[in-house]
Amino acid sequence: LTNTNITNAQDMETIRTLLPAIILVLIALPSLRILYSTDEINNPSFTIKSIGHQWYWTYQYTDYGGLIFNSYMLPPLFLNPGDLRLLEVDNLVVLPVEAPVRVMITSQDVLHSWTIPTLGLKMGAVPGHLNQTTFNAMRLGVYYGQCSEICGANHSFMPIVAELIP
Q1: CA distance 86 to 25
Q2: Alpha carbon distances (Å) from 160 to 5, 72, 76, 163
């Protein structure tokens, strides 16, 4: 009752399965090498450390005398006409344009996420762990972001504002 012709195509089936897998690996290896090499900037011209706290961010300009400041969301009473509600801060981060910038990100209390979507930046802020991301922005302007983790009751009230200047 056993059909002996079933195993005749097993070699062909194995080749048909392994060949695409080998092709995918050959495509992935150079891509991963390029991905990791573009992610790391060895000599950034500017470094900033961002520390997430419950409902605000602390920034440290480590290259320039350790300048430290906090960045809180502006309450609605302090907004000017044309300001973005829930996105404006009292102290924004000023960064150079057309220069490699390294941002080191950590957290003081719970998980946060330092995210500026228009710059393509998103990095988790984990307590006790120092993450880093690098970017090289080419356009002047003010860029807005928010914590994108569910880090507490008011997690959406942690805006990030970066101004890129020459």
Answers
A1: 45
A2: 66, 9, 16, 10
Distances (CA, A) of 119 to 1, 25, 81, 93: 66, 30, 25, 14
At 155, the amino acid letter reads: H
Give the span between the Cα atoms of 29 and 144, in whole angstroms: 35
Nearest to 154 by CA among 125, 112, 117: 112
Closest C-alpha to 162, from 79, 103, 106? 103
pLDDT in tens, 94-116: 999 999 999 999 999 889 999 99
The partner residues of 133 in beta bridges, in order of sequence, read: 103
Q: What is the pTM of this model?
A: 0.76
